Amino acid sequence: MCLAIPAQVVELRDNDNAVVDLAGVRKEISLSLVDGVAVGDYVIVHVGYALNKLDPDEAAKTLQLFAELGELPVDGGSLH
């Protein structure tokens, strides 16, 4: 199953790309579907594309839920 998950933007790159951080894993994604994203923002990521921006509090709640379900590490370790 594929999930869209919150990730924090840590670097903006050329051509509507960015690097996001999710539990210590960094990945380059496309921002071509979302406007006005800045470093520090949270975005919902699915198959390499940011789908929309997300409120930081909502992102934290969602990431905590994934961690409790065992889909993400609680302590920032590697992904399953």
Concise synopsis of the structure shown:
The chain is α+β, with helices and mostly antiparallel strands and 80 residues long.
Given this structure, which CATH class is correct? Mainly Beta
Radius of gyration: 12 Å
Count the beta strands: 5
The domain count comes to 1
Description:
The chain is α+β, with helices and mostly antiparallel strands. The protein has a single domain, classed as SH3 type barrels, CATH 2.30.30. 16% of the residues lie in helices and 40% in strands. The chain has one helix at residues 56-68, and strands at residues 5-13, 17-22, 25-30, 42-46, 49-54. Strands 3-2-1-4-5 form a 5-stranded antiparallel sheet, with helices on one face. A hairpin with a 2-residue loop joins strand 2 and strand 3 (25-30). The longest helix is centred in the C-terminal third of the chain and has 13 residues, at 56-68. The chain is globular, with a radius of gyration of 12 Å. The protein starts with a strand and ends in a 12-residue tail after the last helix. Residues 76-80 have low confidence and may be disordered.
List keywords for this structure.
80 residues, five-stranded antiparallel β-sheet, disordered C terminus, alpha+beta, globular, 1 helix, 40% strand, SH3 type barrels, 5 strands
What topology does this entry show?
Elements: E1 5-13, E2 17-22, E3 25-30, E4 42-46, E5 49-54, H1 56-68
Antiparallel strand pairs: 1-2, 1-4, 2-3, 4-5
